[in-house]
Amino acid sequence: EVHIVESGGGLVQPGGSLRLSCAASEFTFGTYVMSWVRQAPGKGPEWVSAISSGGGITYYADSVKGRFTTSRDNAKNMLYLQMNNLKPEDTGVYYCEKANDRGQGTRVTVAS
């Protein structure tokens, strides 16, 4: 069974930074494109970013481009999302996804 656990969320002031982590197991992590998806309160899921299986290609939603950076460590089965210059509209639960699998998410709140 696929196992995905996100961590690193919290409360941060606008303009601050957070680094989310995703620990994956029970599948061949290094062969999958991985994504970050978020869900703001009362809204539907929003795709945030994706990274190729080897980590050499990344994709970002326009809303986070230039502020967020996705990376991965295939040796450790880990996915990361570095979030800088956070805005209140970045508030939500962030999920790490592989195809149709995701973890429980980690909550990010951006407020002063």
Task: Report on this structure.
The protein has strands at 3-7, 10-12, 18-25, 34-39, 45-51, 58-60, 68-73, 78-83, 92-98, 101-102, 106-110. The chain has 112 residues and is mainly β. Strands 2, 4, 5, 6, 9, 10 and 11 form a seven-stranded mixed β-sheet that branches. A hairpin with a 5-residue loop joins β4 (34-39) and β5 (45-51). The radius of gyration is 13 Å and the shape is globular. The mean pLDDT is 97.
Helix content: under 10%
Rough outline: globular
From the structure provided, what is the oligomeric state, counting identical versus distinct chains? single chain
Order of helices and strands: EEEEEEEEEEE
Derived from helix and strand composition plus strand pairing, the structural class reads mainly beta
